[in-house]
Amino acid sequence: MAMAADEIEGMIKAALPDALVEITDLAGDGNHYAARVVSESFRGLPRVKQHKTVYDALGGKMGGVLHALQLTTATP
Amino acid sequence: MSVNERIDGIVKTNDVVLFMKGTPLFPQCGFSSKAVAILDHLGVTYESVDVLQDMEIRSGIKEYSDWPTIPQLYVKGEFLGGSDIMMEMYEAGELQELVTSQGLAKA
């Protein structure tokens, strides 16, 4: 099953309220997304931790219903 | 031997290990394919584990690393990340630096 882009954005923002989230539907099929997440809370964290924070926000959907999410994280 | 011990053995006896779907010659997923392309481009010598051939490792590696997706790259026993992090590190020049400083490039 696919996930809607605004559902992904909503879950990330629920966990990281300050985050700027840009979701791109890569294939136009509602199943392959790229997400760019910019948050102050990433500052000083290694990349693995930054990505893990986003995966945790997605509450187990990553690797399950959400197979293809190409993630980029950054600080403002 | 438990699956954790098996994975532990793999990541500790190989300098660079990529857990992936398929093989470097025939990757079975776009993300695994990207990870292979980065390593090949950097000329890194690495071991690969095809998780599609081993269901125990396929689920076990996600718990071992506490990371939900595959591919996963280990360097000198440490989890480095998946293909997105590899790409970010590559674009920032950090991966090249790591390869050089740890002497991981093909002779």
From TrEMBL, chain B:
Keywords: 2Fe-2S, Iron, Iron-sulfur, Metal-binding, Redox-active center. InterPro entries: Glutaredoxin, GRX_PICOT-like, Monothiol_GRX, Monothiol_GRX-rel, Thioredoxin-like_sf. GO terms for molecular function: 2 iron, 2 sulfur cluster binding; disulfide oxidoreductase activity; metal ion binding. Residues 16-79 form the Glutaredoxin domain. Signal peptide: none annotated. [2Fe-2S] cluster binds at C29. Transmembrane segments: none annotated. Belongs to the glutaredoxin family. Monothiol subfamily. This is Glutaredoxin. It comes from Sphingorhabdus lacus. The lineage of its organism: Bacteria, Pseudomonadati, Pseudomonadota, Alphaproteobacteria, Sphingomonadales. The gene is grxD.
